Amino acid sequence: MEDVTIMFGWLGFFAAAFFSWYYYLQARTKERTLLIEKGADASNFYAKKPERRGFRFSFPWLKLGLLLVGIAFGLMFGFVMTHAVLPNSLRSIDEPFVFGSTVLFGGFGMILAHFTDKKKAQ
Asked: Is rRNA processing one of the keywords UniProt gives this record (predicted)?
């Protein structure tokens, strides 16, 4: 019974995504048709957009990637230190140690991302 619920959940998700895309295209076509009927030029729909000078937003994939790699190294380091290196008498500090190493290595990843982005900008 649980498998059927999961299947219908995924089916509903993909149906919603498909119908959203379909109605977007349908509305865009209707809008363009109305503009052409009113005498607007259709060539500007398909023309390349001019490049804007000045501020351009681009998602910082490099920074996000280095942050996530730093967090992953922090988690791995914390788990290795608590389960392989620390003796059983110190196992009570394993959760704060894992959290601290995750934050520490995540910070190292952000610092590394800052310096690599600074080099790229120059």
From this structure: no
